[in-house]
């Protein structure tokens, strides 16, 4: 009886929260909504330390926070979400830490394919973005399975940056562009008077060519650096850096970021009119 009434109370609270979120969404929809929001999920280990948890448990709570945030974004019709899950620099951490984070990531990739996951609820196509050759075989295979299984989804997109840094993405793209041009022009490349490469050529080979540039980048834990994340794509992105550690991130942080984005857009439009 006690358990039944507590389940009912939980359902009522969840229903009320979902209703309030829909009301806030309707209000925010009066202005422009972002198409693409990207997240730097910083502060998981600090959260574990603060709460007296094991280091890896910070990342577990962080994954739950990510699932909630994806739900809020897709409810708001934000079509593209990108997350920085593991940078190439992160491979320099203690080997046992890298291994346990990778194990968790593999487990969570597999959970994304379960019937009741956010990915299936919202028809999300998943892309893994980065130098996937650097991943261990089980993680790479899990990532490939997830990309194949969701390839037909088109309502929303989730880009998971893993074994990623922007400088690696740009270098790889320039290399691919050069190879393409050499194939096209052969021995005549050196004699050409025209520029051989333009911005569109390089952009086409970026791992992130699957999505438009992010409108907003949210970095948790109050850090105001981009840490080699989407450097090419962030020229016009709004950066929002709440003090909350990633596992503490909530719906109101997203609302605040969208309000800042709308204010910023309004002042940009005024400036353009004055030009
Ligand atoms: C499938 C999928 C998307 C899984 C994601 C799981 C997850 C939450 C990974 C975060 C990994 C990471 C290195 C976060 C940065 O916090 P930190 O470890 O650097 O913590 P700190 O900033 O406190 O040092």
Automatic annotation (TrEMBL):
GO cellular component, one term: cytoplasm
Record keywords, A-Z: Transferase
InterPro entries: UPP_synth-like, UPP_synth-like_CS, UPP_synth-like_sf
GO molecular function: magnesium ion binding; prenyltransferase activity
EC number: 2.5.1.-
Matches recorded under Gene3D superfamilies: Decaprenyl diphosphate synthase-like
Pfam families associated with the record: Prenyltransf
HAMAP family in alphabetical order: ISPT (MF_01139)
Homology family: Belongs to the UPP synthase family.
Protein name: Alkyl transferase
UniProt source species: Salvia divinorum
Gene that specifies this protein: CPT3
